[in-house]
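Inverse folding, one chain.
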């Protein structure tokens, strides 16, 4: 019987922890959504002029270009 009680208490504890986490996660999720929106910001490529997602850009000489190809052109 003691063992069953132990597992029940453990289960209740885990449940409470999950509930607390959900409350804590809410503002963090919002922040993450904002961060994701920032990550999807479109910027023009200084080499070919194509708009690309900033997070997928390639840095060359303090400039961000759209691809490895443009990175080569920019470094020439
Ligand atoms: Zn480009």
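Residues assigned per position:
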């Amino acid at each position: 019987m003691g063992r069953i009680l132990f597992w029940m208490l453990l289960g209740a504890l885990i449940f409470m922890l999950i509930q607390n986490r959900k409350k804590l996660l809410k503002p963090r999720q919002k922040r993450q959504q904002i961060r994701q929106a920032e990550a999807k910001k479109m910027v023009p490529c200084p080499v070919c002029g194509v708009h690309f997602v900033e997070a997928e850009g390639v840095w060359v000489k303090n400039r961000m270009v759209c691809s490895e190809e443009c990175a080569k052109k920019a470094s020439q």
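The longest helix spans residues 2-39. DSSP finds two helices and four strands in the chain.
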